[in-house]
Amino acid sequence: MSTTLEPGDGETKPTGSPTPSSGRTAVGGSAGSERSPQPNQSTENRTSNGNRKPARRSSSAKSDNSGQKPGQKPGQKPASKPAAKTGAKPPRNRRLTRVEETSAGGLVLRLDGGQIEAALIGRIDRRKRLVWSMPKGHLEEGETAEQAAVREAQEETGIQSRVIAPLGVIDFWFVAEGRRIHKTVHHFVLEATGGDLSDEDIEVEEVAWVPVAELPTRLGYADERRLLERVPGLLADAGFHVDVRALMPGLSDADEGRAGAGSA
Known about the structure:
Blueprint: E1 3-5, E2 12-14, E3 44-46, E4 52-54, H1 59-62, E5 97-112, E6 115-124, E7 130-133, E8 136-138, H2 145-157, E9 159-176, E10 179-195, E11 206-211, H3 215-218, H4 222-227, H5 231-237, H6 244-247, H7 251-257
Parallel strand pairs: 5-10
Antiparallel strand pairs: 1-2, 3-4, 5-6, 5-8, 6-7, 6-11, 9-10
């Protein structure tokens, strides 16, 4: 049976099964046992074909108590590991994509003799509150702001209308779905011409005819309340002989008290 030398241990081990008739291993001793290396054992061992083969150095020969490694000159300091890089730049914050959006809507008025009412919509905000505002929505491809205002007013309130005059423009910023959106909303004064109130629009919780005297306290956004200041003059310029300001005596006081509520 041939024997091989395991790296680093300086002893031989059997590589095959012992011959049944002899009951001994190839290196001598009783059956099933191995001879341990002796202290003064030769540094040479024989292979199965009888040729001499230099024994490999044991692990104890690779280094000594001085801490020097193979190939290191006496007194030479071991090479130190390269220092870790410091001051690495932190990843840059991802910039939000800027998006421009345009919407249109306005104040839909029902002028019936001395009674003036406005069609408002109520939406539930992020704080689960019902907030009243003027109907409005995005422009569709090929639409003008006036056309979009009339269409959105009908979709969100069920009321058909026509444009009397531009009321004003509101713009604001907000973040949604990883985008920074700049929204511009064109408002108009509209006169109701037909239809019935309807809250079928999925984004609308309620719709209502609100007396103009209640608008300063009912409208939830300060920007829209400020637009009310222009309504009397615009109606007068359009030939409507209605004293809207007399119907909204608390307009300025209410708006100053609720400024900063935001915009839709």
